[in-house]
Design a protein that fits this description.
By secondary structure, the protein is α/β, with parallel strands linked by helices. 43% of the residues lie in helices and 16% in strands.
């Protein structure tokens, strides 16, 4: 599998768009992969939209997903100049200021636009290695390919089960961590409940745990698609230490609000084929969960769905 991806990465991006475009068309029109799930998600999030409007959003989201796969493969051999040109950060100085002050930074992003390019292009622009938190893939070849791709320009991908150990071990060193935080915890994991896209939604509390453990400033990575294969990133401050004592999920709540605004602005750029709403909110559930577990999956780059 890794050999196939490396071979495909030799193709120009436009050719890869054609290859994965065919795969995307078959997935959406013929095999209807996760079509019912994605349609249901859109209906719950945008009940005010007509069926035709939601179907148009869904079709575009599948095309975007096909383009994403092409872009991930292409980026394995892409030049630094090409990646920076295609995915610039408008205000990287925010990260440099925190690091210069001796403070770690936690970047929170989502399965929105191209989250893989955010890591690669970010490493090239912020002047500090960006360490992506990730969940290893079941297929070993895919896992090797993604780890190699994510570390091309610096940064050390950190498996989610080793995250807290790494954070605590290096808590005196200012570092940059990146976390994809829009996944849903399992029913028995600590969670934060909030209204998100008009639904009661559970979020991992990991961002709060990591921010406190690392005494890190938290920035939301707001991404905008400005053309095919072209994005623009803007860093939005969410929180910074000192943090309140005791259990607190303020970081997660601010993240949910920032992400919701991003999705409402461009709904086809979110990954509707994942299961954001797996179960209902218990009647007695408070907004914040019980004491978070440091070993929980804090929402990680490259999660399986």
């Amino acid at each position: 599998m890794a050999f196939l991806f490396r071979a495909l990465s030799l193709l120009p991006l436009l050719s890869l768009y054609h290859v994965f475009g065919v795969v995307g068309w078959l997935t959406f029109r013929v095999f209807r992969w996760r079509h019912a799930l994605a349609s249901s998600n859109l209906a719950r999030a945008f009940p005010e939209r007509t069926v035709a409007e939601r179907e148009a959003i869904l079709a575009q989201s599948y095309r975007n997903l096909a383009d994403l796969l092409a872009e991930i493969v292409w980026s394995f051999r892409a030049s630094p100049e090409d990646l920076v040109a295609r995915c610039p950060v408008t205000n990287p100085e925010l990260i440099r200021e925190h690091i210069g002050a001796g403070r770690s930074v936690l970047l929170l992003t989502a399965h929105f636009c191209n989250w893989e390019w955010q890591i690669l292009a970010g490493n090239l622009q912020v002047g500090v290695p960006v360490n992506a938190i990730y969940k290893p893939q079941r297929v070993a070849g895919i896992d090797r390919f993604l780890r190699a791709a994510r570390s091309r320009f610096g940064g050390e991908p950190i498996p989610h089960k080793k995250l807290m150990r790494e954070v605590l071990r290096r808590r005196r060193e200012p570092r940059v961590y990146a976390m994809v935080a829009d996944q849903t915890p399992t029913p028995d994991e600590p969670k934060h409940w909030t209204r998100f896209l008009d639904e009661d939604s559970a979020f991992f509390v990991g961002p709060d745990v990591v921010a406190r453990a690392a005494a890190a400033a938290v920035l939301f990575v707001d991404v905008e698609r400005v053309g095919r294969g072209r994005y623009r990133m803007r860093l939005v401050p969410l929180a910074q230490p000192p943090y309140p004592k005791g259990v607190d999920t303020g970081v997660v709540e601010r993240y949910a609000r920032a992400l919701e605004g991003e999705i409402r602005r461009s709904p086809a750029d979110w990954l509707w084929v994942h299961r954001k709403w797996k179960y209902g909110r218990p009647r007695d559930a408070a907004g914040a969960a019980a004491t978070p577990s440091p070993g929980g999956e804090a929402g990680v780059a490259g999660n399986r769905h």
